[in-house]
Design a protein that fits this description.
This protein is mostly helical. It is built from 5 helices and no strands.
Length: 194
């Protein structure tokens, strides 16, 4: 989580500088400014890829563990096996804590991807007749590389906001299927007893 916050902060600093240059003086910018912005963006991309190459295994295990734990806890939430009020309070506190933790563990790396894509909107505000070769290269780098920038789970998936929504949809679908199976099993069990 801390690495995600750090990298997102660096991209946000870059975005702030980029926006400031565009708002203040994009008509009078020297080509060296765009070259510096391009090389700085490439360095941020390389830093993100370097860190991802070292922690992608941990991201995969963490995401898998969190998904499985959330699925199991949500499954047990619908089974009335808690005896006293303290057990119920503990269980629901743990479920809320677990869902919040899982969301933050996925949301913070997703912000890297969003911050990496933001310069594309800034550079598109500049009329193309004022572009130079470095601006064109920067636009190409951002449009090609930015959608796949961020942390991955061993390159199986990229953590983006879309991935988070897909995981939430998967959890909800899985829980609905499990609940239907449990109800069918209980009804079949009750019918065999009668």
């Amino acid at each position: 989580m801390m690495l995600s916050i750090g990298i997102t902060t660096r991209f946000n600093q870059y975005n702030h500088l980029f926006r400031k240059i565009i708002q203040n003086r994009h008509n009078e910018c020297k080509p060296t400014i765009w070259r510096d912005l391009r090389t700085h963006y490439i360095q941020l991309l390389e830093l993100t890829k370097f860190i991802d190459s070292h922690i992608s295994g941990v991201v995969l295990i963490s995401a898998s563990h969190n998904m499985l734990t959330v699925l199991l806890k949500c499954f047990f939430a619908f089974r009335p096996t808690r005896i006293d009020i303290l057990d119920t309070i503990y269980f629901w506190f743990f479920v809320v804590f677990l869902i919040t933790r899982t969301f933050l563990v996925l949301y913070l790396p997703a912000m890297i991807n969003e911050a990496a894509c933001r310069p594309l909107t800034y550079i598109r505000q500049i009329p193309q007749d004022k572009w130079n070769s470095d601006m064109d290269r920067l636009h190409d780098i951002i449009s090609i590389e930015a959608p796949s920038i961020g942390f991955t789970g061993k390159q199986f998936f990229y953590i983006t906001k879309g991935t988070i929504l897909s995981m939430i949809g998967t959890i909800i679908t899985f829980e609905i299927i499990l609940l239907d199976e449990i109800e069918a099993h209980v009804e079949g069990l009750c019918a065999s007893i009668d």
